[in-house]
Amino acid sequence: MDIRVKICGLREPEHVAAAAEAGAAYVGFVFFEKSPRHIGVAAARDLALEVPVGVAKVALTVNADDAFLDQLVDAVPLDMLQLHGGESPERVAEIRARFGLPVMKAVGIAGPEDVAQIDAYGAVADQLLIDAKPPKGADLPGGNGLAFDWRLVNRKYWPCPWMLAGGLTAANVAEAVRMTGARQVDVSSGVESAPGVKDAGLIRDFVKAAQGQAVPVLR
Ligand SMILES: O=C(O)c1ccccc1N[C@@H]1O[C@H](COP(=O)(O)O)[C@@H](O)[C@H]1O
C-alpha cells in the first residue's frame, strides 16, 4: 500500500506542481499570521485553483473563529480543514457540522500523558494528525521541524485515519513509517531550504522516500 503524503505550507504554484507531480495526496495552506508559511485567503484561492483533481486541498487554521472560517470556506475551494490549535473536541464537532468539510485535528504529543487525549478527538474528527508538542514559548503550534518519540504511537489504534507529522525529512521518513505503522505522513520544514521557503527537489525527495517504503504488517 502506498503511503499518502501531505506537503504543508505551500505558497507558490511551482511547489504545488512539484508536490502533485511527485504523487502527494494532499497539499496544505497555512492560515496563521505568525507562520513564515502564512498565506492570505485571496492568494490561497488562486493557488487552490491550480491544484490538480485528485490532490486534496487542506486549510490549516489555529483556533479560528466562525467569521474567518466562513470567509475561508466561501472563497477557497477546499477538501479538508486542519485544526492545529487548542480546539476542544466540542469545537471540532461544531466546525465539522457547520462547515460541511472533513476535519483533521492535530494533536501535539511529547509523552505518554499526551497520547491519552487523542481518543477524545478520534471520536469527533474525520482524521487525526499526530505531531510533536511545540516547545514551551514557541511562536508556532506546529511547523517547528521537531520530531517526537515515535515509540509513543507504535501499535496504537484510533477509530479514524491518522497522519504522522513533526520533524519528518526524506532522511528519516522511512524509519518513522517503519516504527509507527503510519499510512499517511505530513511535512513542512523538512522540504524547505529556509523557514517558509519550499524546495521542489526536497519535495520530490520526500515523496519518493515516503512512498518507497514497504509498509510494516501490524498485528
Ligand atoms: O507549518 C506551519 O507554519 C504551522 C503553523 C501553525 C501550525 C502548524 C503548522 N504546521 C504543521 O505542523 C506540521 C509539522 O511541521 P514540521 O514538518 O515539523 O515543520 C506540518 O506538517 C504542518 O501540518
UniProtKB/TrEMBL annotation:
Pathway: Amino-acid biosynthesis; L-tryptophan biosynthesis; L-tryptophan from chorismate: step 3/5. Its EC number is 5.3.1.24. One of its GO terms (molecular function) is phosphoribosylanthranilate isomerase activity. It catalyses: N-(5-phospho-beta-D-ribosyl)anthranilate = 1-(2-carboxyphenylamino)-1-deoxy-D-ribulose 5-phosphate. Residues 5-208 form the N-(5'phosphoribosyl) anthranilate isomerase (PRAI) domain. It holds the Pfam family PRAI. One of its GO terms (biological process) is L-tryptophan biosynthetic process. Keywords: Amino-acid biosynthesis, Aromatic amino acid biosynthesis, Isomerase, Tryptophan biosynthesis. It comes from the Bacteria. The keyword Lipid metabolism does not apply. InterPro entries: Aldolase_TIM (IPR013785), PRAI_dom (IPR001240), RibuloseP-bd_barrel (IPR011060), TrpF_fam (IPR044643). Belongs to the TrpF family. HAMAP family: PRAI. This is N-(5'-phosphoribosyl)anthranilate isomerase. The lineage of its organism: Bacteria, Pseudomonadati, Pseudomonadota, Alphaproteobacteria, Rhodobacterales. The gene is trpF.
